[in-house]
Design a protein that fits this description.
The complex is a heterodimer of chains A (about 80) and B (about 250).
Chain A (H helix, E strand, L loop, with lengths): L8 H6 L4 H37 L20
Chain B lengths: L1 H7 L2 H7 L3 H23 L13 H28 L2 H33 L8 H21 L4 H15 L2 H11 L20 H33 L4 H6 L8
Classes of the chains: A mainly alpha (about 80), B mainly alpha (about 250).
């Protein structure tokens, strides 16, 4: 196992003076990850709502109502 | 093998086959990202020239790999859709585009944050690598918007597939820009096994861990989006209605 490169937490935060750039880049990475998980999860809830409405009708001609049916993904 | 491929090309079977897969991919990418990022931030030794700032590389390079890999996948899907009208190929292409766009945005942001302390500027228009990466973002956004611009989903799918294949010309430009017209961006680092003195494993192992995490993450969120799109497009189909008619088999 390689050894830790920082003697203290303050040193870790400062990143040898590059703290602003390093932490902002990793924050952008976090935003990227969260956005990519949250977006399909919100869409999932929307799609489930649509699917449940169609499931209530047994005939093949299901209703075409509501703005959610347009297929536009909100981002 | 072929049978398995045919099953993936059916929306219904794809949906059934990926029930467990999304959970596994979520676990794998969480583990890899946790190990990789802790290693990259805390344990990897500082670079002899760039100090701790080089730790940005551990997200910049995997993000760039995703920007490129996602485009290859979309091109393959666009081609399959245009050639054989495989519906699933179009669903995957549609689902992948926003992920690729966001990866490209991350490449540009992390690259700018790297560039400021290293080169003295966040951005420069004259550098071919930087400019071609920005063009990549515009291509991704163009593919997304063009699909939405059409009234009929089939026309939107076809035209966005054509644009995807046209945009493929930007890929070699990005790749070779650092060699053909090097201005600021350095050529790709050679992470070879032979050159271990220049790049000890403490430096490149975490890069590979984050990289594999990125691959798992991509296929995880891609599958989530593909499953959503399958449910939406098949909302009138009997199997989707059965899934959502309130009976307990719905997971």
């Amino acid at each position: 196992m390689p050894e830790m490169q920082f003697a203290s937490f303050a040193e870790f935060l400062s990143m040898g003076g590059y703290g602003f750039y390093v932490w902002l880049a990793y924050a952008a990475f976090m935003v990227f990850l969260v956005a990519n998980v949250v977006q399909p999860m919100l869409r999932r809830r929307q799609v489930e709502k649509i699917a449940r409405r169609y499931a209530q009708f047994n005939e093949p001609s299901a209703p075409e109502t509501g703005a959610e049916d347009s297929g536009v993904v909100e981002s | 093998m072929m049978n398995w491929l045919y099953q993936l090309a059916s929306p219904k079977l794809f949906y059934a086959m990926t029930n467990r897969l999304v959970v596994w991919l979520a676990v794998i990418c969480t583990v890899l990202f946790t190990i990789g990022v802790i290693w990259a931030l805390l344990f990897a030794p500082p670079d002899y020239q760039m100090g701790h700032n080089y730790r940005i590389i551990y997200i910049h390079v995997p993000a760039a790999g995703l920007m490129e890999g996602c485009y290859y996948l979309m091109s393959l899907m666009a081609f399959s859709y245009l050639m054989w009208q495989i519906k699933m190929a179009d669903i995957v292409a549609e689902a992948a585009a926003p992920i690729g766009a966001m990866a490209t945005a991350l490449v540009l942001v992390s690259g700018a944050l790297w560039g400021k302390p290293t080169w003295g500027t966040y951005w420069i228009w004259g550098d071919a690598r930087l400019t071609s990466s920005l063009i990549m973002l515009f291509i991704y956004i163009g593919i997304i918007l063009l699909r939405e611009a059409f009234e009929s989903p089939e026309s939107g799918a076809k035209v966005s597939a054509v644009l995807t294949l046209v945009g493929l010309v930007n890929i070699p430009i990005i790749k070779y820009s650092v060699e053909w017209w090097a201005v600021l961006h350095q050529p790709a680092s050679q992470l070879s096994m032979r050159d271990t003195a220049a790049n000890p494993p403490e430096i490149w192992v975490p890069a590979f861990i984050v990289g594999f995490g990125m691959i798992a993450f991509f296929f995880w969120v891609l599958t989530l989006r593909v499953r959503n799109e399958i449910l939406f497009r098949e909302r009138k189909a009997q199997w989707v209605r059965q899934l959502f008619d309130g009976s307990p088999q719905h997971a």
